Amino acid sequence: MTIRLQRRPGGWRRWLVASVAGSAVLGGVLVLLPGGPGQLWARGPAAAPAPGPAAMAHDAVAAGVPAALPELAVLIGDREARVRARPLEARSWAVLGAAYVEQGRRTADPAHFPKAERALRTALRLKESPAALEGLAALAVARRDFPGAKRWGEAARRLAPKRWTTEAVLIDAYTGLGDHRAVGRALDRLVALRPGTAAVRARKAAVYRDRGWREDAAAQLADAVAAAGTPAERAAYLEQAGRLAFERGDRAAALRYFQEALRTDPDQRAAQAGQGRALAALGRTSQALTAYQAALDRQPRPEDALELGELYESLGLGQAARVQYDLLRERARAAAASGADAELVLGRFEAEHGDAAAAVRRLRAEWRRQPSTAVADALGWALYRAGRAGEALPYAVRATDRERGGGVRSAAYVYHRGVIEGELERYGAARRHLQEAVRINPWFSPLDAPRLRRALAELGEPSVEGPPSG
For an engineered disulfide with 140, which of 118, 134, 149, 316 has Cβ 3.0 to 4.6 Å away? Predict the structure, then answer.
């Protein structure tokens, strides 16, 4: 799918209307032109000056859309100076806190989150406002504290029921809690409050993806990219489209989306890791390694370190893989020190590459706190890896059963379910789910995709013999 943006004409419009010596019409008033006699020009009213970088970042943060990192830095500097000069101005503290949240989210640096919390709580002490409450909800989402995000977001909604950006944050909170009915209700309110905008279309796409409506999700993202107001916003939606294309097994389209996202906004660092993922799936391994390393140099997310480590491991480069796994642990510790929750990625890592029993303990606690589809899959796989396939199966079913909220069509989730079913000698179901994983995306993981093919080969073809006679 090719997405094109329409250029909008801008600038001044001028036209010749008469010739009067030394006179012109400007803004409806007859004035002298210094450029010489004999020309009369008519102009519309003087245009307002273009907004500066701080104003542009402020508008993005207020609208809940990605802000460009350079503009965000200017906004933060501006608001830091303002709260020093006016420490009792609640609104400036709220804007500063929201900007810190966005900076932490975009850079994957959790050190920004304590600063965000201090600013937002200061704003709340000075004046209870929906902006401060919503900022705390967004901070909780960034930290993967979905119960906290729900609590703050619902408080913001009670204070300002018509504030559409609150519904967008609550969708993230409810998704992280596995409350799919609440997600649907929040989406309905969001669409009723703010129909047709790029941000709302992107949010709809995320919900549709979780429901397994991939074509509808792709259509919403195409519209979101076309309607995006800034390069940073457009790049974010292109990166989201790339992830969706990769999940569908379309490696080439995913790569195009990621590359276009980086061209649009070189600071769209998640797209850099996505580029590595797509290149690895295309067999362009050396380019994939370079892309992953570039992403981690600029935005060392634990998830990307895990992916790169597994790519190295698939190539037989165990020492290089261990370097990435050490980075993952380091970043997870930094996240925890800043109040963020890295238990899901740590549990996934430990289940596959470390202590499966420790992974089960981590993920059981995570499941009790926030039982999302992603946690169900990870806990089921950890239980299987710990030799407890019977306990694992209900979680694997939860992650893949649309009736129970597992509508997302993930090759990894379905692969995990098929392997667990095979361990339990449910060979028909195992074969069906492993074949489904291949149909969804046969390149979903450099380590697990070859294992998937081997598991299918070991199962062989289903028996065509009838029941025994007699």
Answer: 149
Q: Delimit the domains of the chain by residue range.
A: 206-299, 300-341, 357-459
For 250, the 3-state DSSP assignment is: coil
Q: How far is residue 160's CA from residue 164's CA, in Å, rounded to a whole number?
A: 9
Would the CATH topology of 206-299 be identical to that of 357-459?
yes
Q: Which of 374, 377, 387 is nearest to 433 (CA)?
A: 377
Class of domain 357-459: mainly alpha
Provide the mean pLDDT of the chain.
89
- Domain 206-299 is in which class? mainly alpha
C-alpha of 80 from chain center? 27
Query: Is the model's pTM score more than 0.90?
Result: no
CA distance 33 to 39: 8
Structure-block tokens of residue 24: 């012109």
Question: What does the pLDDT look like over 60-79, one tens digit per residue?
Answer: 888 888 899 999 999 999 99
**Residue with token string 């081997």:** 454
Instruction: Pick the more confident residue, 252 or 461.
Output: 252
Q: Can you read off the two tokens belonging to residue 433? A: 């789910």
Residue 411's closest CA among 376, 445, 459?
445
